[in-house]
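dude i think i finally got it to work??
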Amino acid sequence: MEGLARWALAFSVGFLAVRFLRVTTRDLFAAPALQRENHRGARLPTAGGLLIVLAVLLVEAARAVIGAIGVGDEPGLDTPRSLVLFAVFAFALLGLIDDLLANGEARGFRGHVGEALRGRLSTGFLKLAGGGAVAVVLVASPGFATGRRLIVDAVLIALCTNLGNLLDRAPGRTLKVGALAYVPLAIALGGGAVGVAAAPVMGAAIALLGDDLRERLMLGDTGANVVGAVLGLAVVLGLDEPARLAVLAVVVLLNVAAELVSFSAVIDRTPPLRALDHWGRPNRAVD
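look at this
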């Protein structure tokens, strides 16, 4: 019960931190540098995932201060929280580069790699290559993973991150899928160290769902990167090998499928998926 209470508190604080930041940073997100056209041509602030980063930083700072006065955990980061914090900052940075500096028309893994082979590095390729490097650094932590597991787990984290981006083609889609994936994962992790480490990130992400659905801002690659990466990292840190391999198989299939078909087209042709995808979104015509 104590572990469950710690998880609930961590999740709730992450959620509330983003709602507070959303109110207090409206002018910052109105900056011209962040304005981009969304799927229907409306101009909105992008990189809403920056609020997740700031919220998680505030949560960890508050944990340290409260721990220093003898309440709750001792000050300092345990291994799961250190890795989650590094993942949040590193993957958000890669996503922010793409949100602000995206260049070229390359799409998908083949498109970005093809451009790189022709001597033109896109921000998408930097995001893919950088994401792979961050994933390796995460799983190469001392005493954590070596050999085959390092490669398998790094690929899992990188593909989960990429999947978060691939789904971010309609308001709320990445956050809805992320929330659905998080429910069984949170149950499996419970109130252990990994579950508590990931909880503020997911609470913060889900706090942006209403704004994303109503097109008040876009999650951007900044946020989609973080959601996918933290879910993948939580799988790697908290689940046993059969479960990790099962998740890896699913994300491999989905990433390969994205190179062959449009997720949006499949969703539109499948009534249950279409209903879920449109849930919470206002009925607006494409401009």
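DSSP finds 14 helices and two strands in the chain.
im so relieved honestly
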